[in-house]
Amino acid sequence: MSADELTYYRGRVGLHAILEALGIGRGDEVITQAYTCVAVPEAILAGGARPVYADVESDGLNIDPEAVRMHVSDATRAIVVQHTFGLPAAMPAIMAVARERGIPVIEDCCHTIAGRLGGEQLGRFGAAAFFSYEWGKPLVVGVGGSVRVNDETLASRLRAAHRGYRSPSLARQLKLGLQYAGFGAVYHPRLYWPVRAAFRHLSRSGAVEGNYNAMAAGEVSEEFRLDMAPMQRALLAVKRRGAARDTAHRRSVVDHYRKALGVFEGLFVEPDAADVVYARLPLRVRDKPRCLARAQELGVELAQWYTSPVHPFEGEALRRVGYEPGSCPRAEERCATVVSLPTHRRVSPRFVRRAAEFFREVA
Ligand SMILES: *Cc1c(COP(=O)(O)O)cnc(C)c1O
Fold this sequence. Notes:
Elements: E1 5-8, H1 11-21, E2 29-33, E3 36-37, H2 39-46, E4 50-54, H3 65-71, E5 76-82, H4 91-101, E6 105-108, E7 116-117, E8 120-121, E9 128-132, E10 145-149, H5 152-162, H6 170-186, H7 192-205, H8 230-241, H9 243-261, E11 274-275, E12 280-284, H10 288-298, E13 310-311, H11 317-320, H12 329-337, E14 338-342, H13 349-362
Parallel strand pairs: 2-4, 2-5, 3-13, 5-6, 6-9
Antiparallel strand pairs: 1-10, 7-8, 7-11, 9-10, 12-14
Bound molecules: pyridoxal-5'-phosphate.
Pyridoxal-5'-phosphate (PLP) binds at residues 10-12, 36-37, 39-40, 82, 108, 110-111, 132, 134, 145, 211.
């Protein structure tokens, strides 16, 4: 663990800690993008602030700098910038708006550990960045998160507060350990759909730690004062030793997908001077429901997130996290059209060929 890094129970707990260290709370607004996971507004709301959703770029999956400018108000105290699937956000334009108004930027690096933009590492543009190590993220330890701080004053505040964070209970640690072992033993791209169904079932019953909390009104989960469990910290250190190899694998898998897909207009354009390492490869399809149904039938790993602008909330439930349905039409369009392919270690050349065949048939 480097000196400018701190661990937390989850990524969202890290974001909450950053907001708290910045003195952000009741009456304050935090701008974030639509086409995100509820973890982000959950952290903002847990600190008492209000999430304000900006739409994504006209042809992309990341926050639109113009939308950020439009949503800045006198109450704006931070901007959370997500590098969706590992595609770098438009940092120079966003940083320009932020600097003009003196607002700190927090990078959501939950989908990226190695990407760069204009030679600079993602996570080094803003005041701080947070990471997640849950299923589906670039490095997996089960449940876990960390924060990297680029500002010395903020770093010392975070370090001081971090002394008050406790380790998860032994019962919780045991659950995380079993969950990690179980998932590692059964997971394979061919088993994506049945494993996903089992995971959902178990997390609803409370037997495993799910990805989403119910978020009862006015209630703040005790997770927001927890550190990463010791076993997960040890696992993270081990996984980091293999990170360069993992990144090389992800690059090679994406090269193979591109070759196998040939001319396919569903790929997203990468920003200039970007070095992209995809956590998953996002693709636009015409008929998402049919595409997913076919993938499930054929046993092809194909993810559907995000299915809603604040995943997985739908309809009226979106208002509970401060999202007005219809307010970010581009993000809503992406929810209806984007699927993603895996790039992780268990993706073989054979899987790439099957996936490409599948897209030629379905997309
Ligand atoms: C996974 C994720 C998070 C937070 O993850 P935790 O479950 O809190 O570790 C935040 N933002 C994005 C974009 C994510 O994908």
